[in-house]
Write a structure and sequence with these properties.
The chain has about 325 residues and is of the alpha/beta class. The protein contains 13 helices and 9 strands. The strands form 2 sheets. Strands 1-2-3-5-7-9 form a 6-stranded mixed beta sheet, with helices on both faces. A 3-stranded parallel beta sheet has the order 4-6-8. It starts with 5 loop residues before the first strand and ends in a 25-residue tail after the last helix.
């Protein structure tokens, strides 16, 4: 079954491959229309009870999933009820991938940001390719938000609260080797071997049942002691307040989401995250930071001249006077 942006077929090994490739777009983003296609594809994937496994890939070289559509995020989101409904819709489709009746692996070869990584955390395994553009991150705090599709809860259960805090609050992406070191991806392999390694991994997991153990562990609380919890999160709050002077609510909200959710079940933790995410969505700070993001992108592409036909002169020698400003 195919949709405009998704293609599904069975590989020779019997493993299913789902390919994400939005036509006419340089990036794969997760707008509302794309989510409708995902829901349609899921109806088909859930019916394949005898499939030994699924690998999820991008059809765009150097691009996996760029995350949510920032134009949608920067628009007026409407009432808190509307924001909640949109958020829960994303959480629901990721949950459905998490509950497919066979092992799943996502093959990240290119940029994987924000909602793209949150979606990937709903799969049993993540493999990263060697494409120079492969970069993995949750940059939501940079636009005044926190991960709202389970990122604060699934990443915490995957790599631990301290590493998840550092990763989410910084908003900085990492390359494949670092992602493997942190435990975000199962392994980092050469891009030309990525599909074969993904097939091998899900077939092995299907035989051993390892995927079921992964899912069971993910549902449980992290289990910090009272002393560990108090030290970790009090320290994190003080560090953030020292840097932001309380002017940026998103980093503190990320701390609260992890602090309040880590010692609960995943389902309870997701509810905590949603309660903290909804007030940030569409807030003046978030909308201004998103607008600033687009302005910076526009500035980076500005050629510096009004006449686009003007070409730069060839420079062969440069002199420097003084030390500059």
């Amino acid at each position: 079954m195919n949709t405009p942006s998704f293609r599904f077929h069975i590989l020779r090994s019997g493993v299913g491959q789902l390919i994400f490739d939005i036509p006419g777009s340089k990036a794969n983003t997760l707008g509302q229309q794309i989510q409708s296609e995902i829901e349609e594809i899921l109806d088909h994937l859930e019916s394949l009870k005898d499939l030994p496994g699924l690998v999820f890939t991008s059809g765009k070289p150097g691009m996996f999933v760029a995350g949510a559509d920032l134009k949608e995020l920067g628009a007026d989101p409407g009432s808190p009820e509307t924001v909640r409904a949109v958020t829960l819709r994303g959480l629901a489709f990721i949950r459905r991938f998490e509950r497919l009746p066979y092992p799943t692996a996502v093959l990240i070869d290119g940029g994987c940001m924000g909602g793209g990584l949150e979606w990937s955390l709903g799969f049993d395994y993540r493999l990263a390719g060697s494409d120079p553009k492969t970069s993995i991150g949750l940059p939501e705090v940079k636009i005044g938000l926190i991960p709202g599709w389970g990122g604060t809860q699934r990443l915490t259960r995957l790599i631990g609260p301290q590493l998840a805090l550092d990763f989410i609050v910084s908003g900085e992406p990492v390359k494949p080797a670092k992602a493997r070191e942190l435990g975000i991806v199962f392994d980092a392999v050469a891009s030309d071997k990525l599909l074969a390694e993904g097939e091998r991994l899900v077939l092995w997991s299907h035989e051993t049942g390892d995927w079921k153990k992964i899912r069971e562990r993910k549902e449980h609380p992290v289990g910090l002691t009272e002393e560990q919890h108090e030290y970790l999160f009090d320290h994190a709050r003080k560090q953030i307040l020292a840097k932001t002077k309380g002017q940026l609510p998103a980093p503190l909200a990320a701390v609260e989401a992890i602090a309040k959710g880590c010692n609960r079940t995943l389902e309870e933790g997701l509810k905590v995250e949603t309660e903290l995410f909804v007030p940030l969505m569409g807030s003046p700070i978030s909308r201004n930071l998103i607008a600033l993001f687009f302005l910076n992108q526009k500035l980076a592409k500005d050629p510096g001249v009004a006449d686009a036909s003007i070409q730069p002169a060839k420079v062969e020698r440069v002199g420097v006077l003084g030390a500059g400003i």
